[in-house]
Automatic annotation (TrEMBL):
Enzyme Commission number, as recorded: 2.7.7.13
Pfam families the record matches: ManC_GMP_beta-helix, MannoseP_isomer, NTP_transferase
Protein name: mannose-1-phosphate guanylyltransferase
All residue ranges annotated as the MannoseP isomerase/GMP-like beta-helix domain in the record: 302-355
Record field: catalytic activity: alpha-D-mannose 1-phosphate + GTP + H(+) = GDP-alpha-D-mannose + diphosphate
Source organism of this protein record: Rhodoplanes elegans
């Protein structure tokens, strides 16, 4: 929908796409984190978040703040649901939510000095979207008097994985002053909070006037605003992205909007919401919102169980089978099998950090590696050879490149490939192949309307991805 159809009074959603979702490893990894994964159904959490604010009578086109490594994933997923963002802001490094919010507020203020922002982490589940929309509408008026409106979720259990907000005036759905922010409690304290009735889960969703947010940041975290402003000045347009100045943004402290502003502000307010909200921060949370069978088991993908209770079993690529177990989480991808008790799933983060210190590839990326043009999967690797499956989406085009240490042989499985090999251009069809000798300048394109799938066989003494010399790239990668 064009900007002409947007209401001048509409709210500007800001979709915050940072974070790696480490506790949902091995499905969520640095290269493809949880916000871009379809945890339930066919749409990713990011797509669900974007659709939640797609009514142009109430919301303007969103500002999306995304990490450098995930910018093309975000573009592809938005295109798939026919949403055109107002701006895609690319963070050169992750600096938590405060710098991201500051950049979005500065950018939005340049377009409209009275802009109202709805800051939304892009990895949440909201089952009752009508209730959420009603809460946003109720909180909008308060922003006109300088209040920063948080959305406190009415707790349904003594959860220990969430931060809490204590209302100054508990009860009802009116906007209340925040009396206290509380970090994640221990089980006994969480039980007390649930019984008290005036504590709410902190959803991390914030409704605020851009001008007010910047004023509070200037007061409580001036270094954040200084770095954000400089990164916009040093930023540049790159294809459909607004790429922030790397050096300037890197000077921003890594701090959340909660710690930098909300916990210090005299204007923090909260509205109580019951909307089926969940922050999928651990596998136990995914189990809680899942479709449980009579024995309390949630089965996803290729999974089966017998004589088992209260388990989450997920098979991605291979079958997960469980017999006679309780309270277990088993998640299998093509390269990793995770097994843990539900009450230990918060410790997955420490395990992944250890794997990263040991430089284990599975801690960073999965077998499927996404690129702007599509993706590839490593099928087999041995001494001086590697076999990959490559999928190029319609219109996708790999960089014009060469290798110093390997030759390649491409076999088209289905689709049509347009191949540049030195001075020649060749059209390769299904069941046809082409050989690319070491050192030749080459490029692969998909000129068709369907995905192009091919098998690549590499041979040589060094087969790592850094043996790519890019000569030209339509995606402006280095």
């Amino acid at each position: 929908m064009s900007p002409r159809n947007e209401s001048k009074q509409a709210i500007t959603p800001v979709l915050l796409c940072g974070g790696t979702g480490t506790r949902l490893w091995p499905l969520s990894r640095d290269s493809y984190p949880k916000q871009f994964i379809a945890m339930q159904g066919e749409l990713s959490l990011f797509q669900q978040t974007a659709l939640r604010v797609s009514d142009r009578a109430s919301y303007r086109r969103p500002i999306v703040v995304v990490n450098e490594d995930h910018r093309f994933i975000a573009v592809d997923q938005l295109q798939a649901i026919d949403i055109a963002p107002a701006t895609l802001i690319v963070e050169p490094v992750g600096r938590n939510t405060a710098p991201a919010a500051a950049v979005a507020a500065l950018h939005a203020s340049e377009q409209d000095g009275d802009a109202k922002l709805l800051l939304m982490p892009a990895d949440h589940v909201i089952e009752d979207e009508a209730a959420f929309t009603a809460a946003v509408t109720s909180g909008l008026e308060a922003t006109g008097s300088g209040r920063i409106v948080l959305f406190g979720i009415e707790p349904s259990s003594p959860a220990t994985g969430y931060g809490y907000i204590r209302q100054e005036q508990p009860g009802g759905s009116a906007v209340s002053r925040v009396a206290e922010f509380v970090e994640k409690p221990d089980p006994v304290t969480a039980e007390r909070y649930l019984a008290a009735g005036d504590y709410l889960w902190n959803s991390g969703i914030v409704l605020v006037a851009a001008r007010q947010l910047l004023s509070e940041l200037e007061r409580h975290a001036p270094d954040v605003v200084t770095a954000a402003r400089a990164s916009l000045v040093d930023g540049e347009r790159d294809l459909d992205f607004l790429r922030l100045g790397a050096e300037a943004f890197g000077r921003a402290p890594s701090i959340s909007i909660d710690h930098s502003v909300l916990e210090k502000s005299d204007h923090a307010s909260v509205i109580r919401v019951r909307c089926g909200w969940a922050d999928l921060g651990a596998w136990s949370a995914v189990w809680e919102i899942g479709d449980q069978d009579a024995a309390g088991n949630v089965l996803a993908g290729q999974a089966v169980c017998d004589d088992s209770h209260n388990c989450y079993l997920r098979g991605e690529g291979i079958l997960v089978a469980a017999v006679g177990v309780e309270d277990m989480i088993v998640v299998a991808t093509e390269d990793v099998v995770l097994v843990t008790r539900k009450d230990s799933d918060q410790n997955i983060k420490q395990l992944v950090e250890r794997l990263k210190q040991e430089k284990h590839a599975a801690a960073f990326t999965s077998r499927r590696v996404h690129r702007p043009w599509g993706y590839y999967e490593s099928i087999q690797q041995g001494h001086r050879y590697q076999v990959k499956r490559i999928t190029v989406k319609p219109g996708g085009k790999l960089s014009l490149q060469k290798h110093f240490h390997r030759a390649e042989h491409w076999v088209v499985v289905n689709g049509t490939a347009l191949v540049t090999r030195d001075a020649e251009t060749v059209l390769i069809r299904e069941n046809e192949s082409i050989y690319l000798p070491l050192g030749c300048v080459h490029r692969l394109e998909n000129p068709g309307k369907l995905d192009l799938n091919l098998i690549e066989v590499q041979s040589g003494g060094y087969l790592a991805e850094d043996d790519i010399v890019r000569i030209e790239d339509v995606y402006d990668r280095v």
